[in-house]
Amino acid sequence: MRILVTGAAGFIGSTLSNRLLARGDEVIGVDNLNDYYDPTLKEARLARLQAQARFGFRRLDIADREGMAALFAAERFDCVVNLAAQAGVRYSLVNPHAYVDANVTGFLNVLEGVRHHGGHLVFASSSSVYGGNTRLPFSEKDSVDHPVSLYAATKRANELMAHSYSHLFGVRATGLRFFTVYGPWGRPDMALFLFTKGILAGEPIPVFNEGKMVRDFTYIDDIVEGVVRVIDSPAAPDPAWDSDAPSPATSRAPWRIFNIGNNKRVELMRYIRAIESVLGRQAKLNLLPMQAGDVQATEADTSLLSAAVGFKPDTPVEEGVRRFVEWYCDYYKVTR
Fold it and tell me: pTM for this one?
């Protein structure tokens, strides 16, 4: 297939693009290479892609209306995977406009491109949309009307915007709620990266809610496998959808939502112990209160994804952490 991947220099976008290229797809990558975190890491991810024959790159911000319209007018895509976004719950507290620009305006430009030029859409949502929900595991059939951060609100907006385009224009759209993605080439603002860097430097690592946090940590290769299977299975209307008892997970329109998570609750302290074990060093903990916009626990019900595409993530956190630490030490030339 010919696939557009936005956010192609990002953590998930670059790993997905590599996987698609390896199986023979042609990939056009879009990224603005912004400085939310160190652009040299983005450039290194991009260099791996540009070394491959079937990859083309456009430096472009998805919030650029004219630029995106020109891209879609000049190209034809079988599928569009939208992974470009302003990420991070905590950063949304200090720079909210960046989230509306990238996650709302930018996503609208992607929707318009698919509407006018075809292809089916796969887009990143987030486990953060579950917001104030506390019943675990989170199901796509649960209410997601109480976001606790602007980041979460923009991701929920993406789901609703995609549904309206599916209903009005027949755009086939699948949203994927990612649960705490980690692994090699990961983001420097994520816990695993920060913890590994801090432990190696002998510095205290920030542990929010005094470590009383639970996350459904999902290894990057499992995320990518789920995305690829969804790419190969475009959304279709649900013939069983009932407007008198509407399911939030499907629709009469060709739209659907899936969780992609490991379907396991992992305590934050277990995560830290896994890093300590691989590094052979003990962490110094800076125990902090819960941060605004954060939630105490997440866990994904992945039964709908499994039923639809026959896949369920299952990489143990200890194995995923080991692979990340090996990559980190190799990439940054660090001796354990």
Answer: 0.96
